[in-house]
Predict the 3D structure of the following.
Amino acid sequence: MIKRLTYCVTTLLFFSVYLQAQPHQIAPFKDGEVVCFVGNSITHAGEFHHNIFLYYLTRFPEKKIQFYNNGISGDVTAGILKRMDDDILFHKPTTAVIMIGMNDVQRNLYTTNKNPGGDTLQRRALALATYRHNLDSIVRIFLQNKIRVILQKPSIYDQTAVSPRPNSLGSNDALKICAGYMQEIADRYKLDIVDYWTIMEDINTRLQKADPSATIIGGDRIHPGPLGNQIMAYQFIHSTDLTAYTTNLVIKDTRNESNKQSFKAEVLDLTRTAQNLTFKTKEYALPYAVRTTALESLNLVPLTDSINYQRIEIDNLKAGNYELRINDIIIGDFQSAQLQKGINLSDYRNTPQYARSSDLRKYLDENYFPVEANWRTVKFFEYRYLSGFAGKNDTAAVRKYMYEKYPAISEPVRNSVNKYNELQPKKAELLKQLKLLNLEAHQKVMPGIYTYKITILD
């Protein structure tokens, strides 16, 4: 009982912090936008912006937005400048969403040594100054091309978790400085900005008070785990000017009265008897399905209530206990007072709407994201190995070039050469597939027809 009470109090403390937070409200992406997420390996891996992609699909299936992964593992600000034309502007983006800094701070300059020499301190300062200068240059290029810029303060380096992994102590402090530079540039150019560093540091600190080995970052202290990626997606969406409601279904005595107050939901039929209330709906959005590996995030941030509220309110019910079914699936039992106040169906992962959202996530995992990964494999290889090489479209020339440049070529690099030569001729097809799969994903969302039945139990 004490453990349960402690858990509830801790959850309330987490939520009180983030429900009170009032981030700058970013305008949501519009229909027809081309959005490029630009960054290093955290962006390259894609999970946080894949979560954002799924959210937009489920919330705004009517908006045809193309999201592109423009992350490169190991990249820095200088690298973004280097690949700007060929990898990013190539997509003709309307919006560039930037997170960079993890590698710019040069973690090798930070050790457990509490008294670094003057040369090390100078190199740290130079790395930060270079980051500041390059980030400003990146932003100005996008703005000169009339591309909207959204900055994302970098995710944290976990230098506080008790772990056997090596610790570049001080790297996270350097990232905090990078976050400050981002804010400075955002203020200068009046840009939208999302703060990952603060929310992730705060949650990690709170978790580690209870368990010093706990972390929302993976075991390497660098790359966010499923929890960290979900928290990042939450923060991005929470910073956007959106209503909390996925759908808001208000059931009155008549269909017309219901339609006046409902949001992204339409009542098609309504029948009341002494024992039952039945109706059909057409719903134009789905709840956002959280990955099973990230469900703990629901105890760390108020995702369900603040950005994923699938509300249903049923008025004029006789006092008592009711069973709610959707498509003949029992969702749960509810008091009349609960239903009249309104419940959040996103709290129930057995609804047919949540099942459709989960199926959509699975579709993306099995279809869209593998194609995206192949595209990034091509661009990573070109960036890492073929910069300045004119024959990158000739697979035989690439093989000859790589084996001459790396005579003692390792097995992983040899495999990369083979993979590149397999995928390079398919570059145009990969981009075409991404667009087609995006459209297919939208078609899987809208609209949905559901049958509700509310039966009095006592």
Notes: The chain has two domains: 2-238, 244-458. Residues 352-385 form the longest helix (34 residues). Residues 2-238 form a domain with the Rossmann fold fold (CATH 3.40.50.1110).
